[in-house]
Design a protein that fits this description.
- The chain is 83% helix and 0% strand.
- The chain is mostly helical.
Length: 110
């Protein structure tokens, strides 16, 4: 929904490829975190890797990709798209995977 129209903007094409690769990395790491005991050393390593990928991904989106998006989407279109994405996640019953990881971290801290 968000990326498809941006593919038409040449400055966004490479950023989109990297973003999609990072999305796959994030999904993989979240799956590892959800299926691994938080007491294992590999869980903490995966958490650190997730943090690094997320920080890099967000920084790149905020500085480069959103600038390209402003040339494609109006403010109204962007707000509408955000609302549709939130509604779709709710319709699908998707739990925020970061909330799952956050719960595990809190459990470790207790």
């Amino acid at each position: 929904v968000f990326y498809r129209p941006l593919r038409q903007v040449s400055q966004a094409a490479e950023i989109l490829e990297q973003a999609e690769d990072e999305h796959h990395q994030i999904e993989h790491l979240l799956m590892e975190l959800q299926t691994t005991s938080a007491e294992k050393a590999s869980w903490l390593e995966s958490l650190r890797a997730l943090r690094a990928v997320l920080q890099r991904h967000v920084a790149k989106e905020e500085t480069e990709l959103f600038a390209a998006a402003r040339s494609v989407y109006s403010t109204m279109e962007a707000e509408d798209m955000g609302m549709r994405m939130i509604a779709e996640k709710g319709r699908l019953g998707m739990e925020n995977p970061l909330a799952v990881v956050s719960r595990k971290v809190k459990e470790l801290m207790e």
